[in-house]
Design goal:
Elements: H1 2-7, E1 14-19, H2 26-35, E2 40-45, H3 52-55, H4 57-68
Parallel strand pairs: 1-2
Length: 73
């Protein structure tokens, strides 16, 4: 799925919320967001792994709700 996003610019605002300890997916998403998807934003949660909405639920919810309200960037 991420490979498809890399190849296609959807021009849809997108928020990626990832844990700094997500060693499998974070490096790839950093590369894709930085180089291919201009309408996206990456937010990295410290001291967190892959399941950010469970591991750091309060921070995750605050960031996502703020993004949906237009309070991001």
């Amino acid at each position: 799925m991420l490979r498809w996003f890399r190849q296609t610019e959807l021009n849809i605002p997108t928020l990626y919320v990832m844990g700094e300890e997500d060693y499998m997916f974070l490096p790839y998403v950093k590369q894709v967001v930085a180089n291919h998807i201009k309408s996206s934003e990456l937010f990295i949660i410290q001291n967190c792994g892959h399941v950010v909405n469970v591991e750091q639920a309060v921070i995750f919810n605050q960031k996502v709700i703020g993004y949906l309200r237009g309070e991001s960037k």
